[in-house]
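Hi R.,

Here are the chain sequences for the assembly we discussed:
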Amino acid sequence: MSVLYDAPGPKTRRRHAIWAVLGGLVVAAVLGLVVWKLDQEGQFSGAYWAPFRNWGVWQNTLLPGLRFTVQAAALAIALAIVFGILLCTARLSDHALVRIPGGILIEVFRACPLLLVILFFYLAFGKELGTLWPLVLGLMVYNGAVLAETFRAGINAVPRGEVEAGYSIGLSKSHVTRSILLPQAIRAMLPAIISQCVVALKDTSLGFIISYEELVRRGKGIYESYYNIIPTALVLAAMFIVINYTLSRLATYVDGRLRRRGQRTVEPTDVGDRPVEAAAAQG
Amino acid sequence: MDVLLDNFDTILDGFRETIALTALSAVCAIVLGVVLAAMRVGPAAPLRWAGAAYVNVFRNTPLLLLFVLFVFGLPTVGIQASFFLRAVIALTLYTAAFVCEAVRSGVNTVQRGQAEAARAIGMTFGQTLRYVVLPQAIRTAIPPISSLMIALARNTSVAEAFGTKEATYVLDSLGRDHASALYWIFAGIALGYLVLCLLIAGGFRLLERQLRVAR
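And here is the predicted structure of the full complex:
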C-alpha cells in the first residue's frame, strides 16, 4: 500500500473501483486500437509470421545473430571494466597531470553520442578492423567512462577509517587501492555492473548501422525478404525484453542480497540509460 | 581544419535538426513520463499494471529497434508521417519510460509524513499528489531528468540512419567524403554535442536554483 492513500473506506473503495474499471477500459481501448489497426492491415496474416514458425530461420539467422550480439556486449563490458578502472584511477590520482586529463576524458566520452564514436572508429579503422571492433571499441569507451564514475562512487563508499588504517600500518597508496579499496568497491559495484550489461546489450544494436551482423541486422535480412517489418520488430523486441528483464531482476536480486549482508552498494551514477530500480527501491 | 570551416553551414544545419529533435521529444517524453508515473503510483490497479508493463517493455528494448519499428514499420500499416516526426515518436516512447521511473522514485523519496498530513486534513489522492507530493517530487527528480535529457540529446544520433539529417549524419557523410580530415570533423561535431550537453545541464541547474525552497 502506498503512502499516498489510506486503507480505503467503502465509499472510496467504490470510487477506486470505478477508476480501476475506467482506467482498465482506457488501457484496453488503446491496446485494442493498436491490435485492430494491425489486424486491418493484415499484420497477423500467417505469411508474415511464417519465418518465425520455421526452426531453420531461428537456427540459421536469429540465434547466430543473438550470439553475435552477446559476443559484442560481453567483449565490450569486459574491456569497459578494465578501461573504467584505468580512467577512475587516473581521475583519483594525486598528480594533476594525470587527474585533469582523466576527468576531461570521462566527461567527453559521456557527452559524446555513442553512435558518433562508433561511426568514427568505423570510418577511421573499418577497413582494417571490420565491423565488430569499431562497435566494441565504441561501447568500451562509453561504458568505461560511465563505469569509471560508478567506480569512483564505490571507492568513496569505503569507510575512510579503513584507508587510514591501511596507511597507518605503512601501506603505500597503490597498495591501499589494490588491497583495500578495489575489492570492496568491485563488490559494491556488482549490481551497477550487471545493470550496465543491459545498457551494453541494448547498445550493441547500434552495430546495425555499421552492418555488424547482430540480432537486429539479422532481423533486417528477414523483413527484407518477407516484407514483415512489424512482426519481425515485435519478435526481436520480445527477445531483448526477456533477456534484459532477466538481467535487471538479477541486478536487483544481487543488490538486495548484498544489502542484507550489510554491504553498501553503489547506485548507478548515470540514470541516463539504465534501470533505476535500485535507486527507486532505496527511497 | 578547413573542412570544418568550409562545411560550417552543413554542420550548423545538422545541429539545428538535432536540437529540434531533442526539444520536441523532450517535451513529449516529460509529459508522457509524468502521466505514466502518476499511473504507477495511483490506486487503480489496471493503470498500475499498464504503467509497469510500459516501463519494462520500453526500457528493455533497444532504441534502434524502436526506430526500425516506427520509422520503417509505420508506413507498412498505412500511417504516413515525416521521418522527423517518426523519429520523435520513437525517441519519445523510449525516453518516457525512463522519465516515469525518475519521477516515480522522486515521489518515493517524499517523506511519508507529508502525504499522511495531506490526507489527515482530508485531501483526496489527486490533491495530495498535486499540492503536496508532486511539487517536492519534481524537485528531487530534476537532476536525474537532466541526465535523461542529456541522454536524449545523445540518443537523437540514432535518427542518423533513419532519414534525418542531423549532426551525426553530417559526420557520416562528411567523413566519407573527406576521409583524410575525419579527425577534425569528429572533433568538431563532438565539441558541438559537448556544448549542447553542457547547455542542457546548465539550463536544468538554473531551473533547480529557481525552484529551490527553504526547507
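Chain B touches chain A through 69 residues (CB under 8 Å). Residues 8-41 of chain B form the longest helix (34 residues).

Let me know if anything looks off.

Best,
T.
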